[in-house]
Write a structure and sequence with these properties.
Order of helices and strands: HHHHHHEEEHEE
Protein name: DUF1449 family protein
Helix content: 25-40%
Largest sheet: 5 strands, mixed, barrel
Keywords: Membrane, Transmembrane, Transmembrane helix
Number of strands: 5
Structural class: alpha+beta
Number of domains: 2
Strand content: 5-15%
Length: about 220
């Protein structure tokens, strides 16, 4: 174990050890507190090809996914290189070689993952405004929340939702909420608690906060 930490904290592995620690902290906070969860889910956030990663063949999924894969794989490669290579010139070449190997591994892993983040056909942002959804997360805040919503064709989608003020405190897993607005910049919907009326009101029916600008 001591040798493991020694290798991880020495060149060349240390080049990727710090980024890997940041990635692990990110995912821990995302799982525990929902911090950065918007970058993990929702096809709305990957339409631009993964935050510029599309140029490297890593687009089509949220940015956090290929970045985490690349970092972890490059770290493993640098650890192996640090153990197997002794001469200084060879060790100096390990970080760029590990980066290339990390990219290759992330590229292979991202290809099948793209299908998980493809938006379902026939589902558009405006189709969901005015509909009732079911909250899927333990809480909904101004920066975190997910819900499942059904479209006219029977297709369902898990979307990012947000709520503010006292209304947010009423929303928990299993509660129904009315979608009343869409924020294009953040790729999420504004919702409010919904406990009465038909299960799925049409988009033309009035709802709270309908005066909020829609995309």
């Amino acid at each position: 174990m001591a040798d493991f930490f020694s290798t991880a904290l020495e060149f060349p592995a240390v080049v990727f050890s710090i980024p890997l620690a940041v990635v692990l902290l990110y995912w821990l906070f995302a799982l525990a507190f929902g911090v950065g969860a918007g970058a993990v889910d929702a096809a709305d956030g990957v339409a631009d090809g993964g935050g510029g990663f599309g140029w490297f063949g890593l687009g089509g999924v949220p940015l956090a996914v290929p970045l985490s894969l690349l970092t972890a794989l490059a770290w493993f490669a640098s650890m192996a290189g640090g153990e197997l290579i002794d001469d200084e010139v060879g060790r100096a070449l390990v970080p760029p070689a590990a980066l290339v190997l990390g990219w290759a591994g992330a590229w292979l892993a991202v290809r099948p993952l793209r299908r998980l983040f493809e938006p379902e056909s026939g589902l558009y942002h405006r189709d969901f405004v005015g509909r009732v959804c079911e909250v899927r997360t333990s809480r909904v805040t101004a920066s975190f929340g997910q819900a499942e919503v059904t479209a006219d064709d029977g297709g369902t989608a898990v979307v990012q939702i947000r709520a503010e003020g006292p209304e947010a405190a009423e929303l928990a897993a299993g509660r129904r909420a009315l979608i009343y607005g869409y924020e294009a910049d953040g790729g999420f919907f504004w919702v409010a608690p919904y406990d009465a009326g038909p299960l799925d009101p049409g988009p033309d029916e009035p709802g709270p906060g309908r005066n909020r600008a829609l995309d």
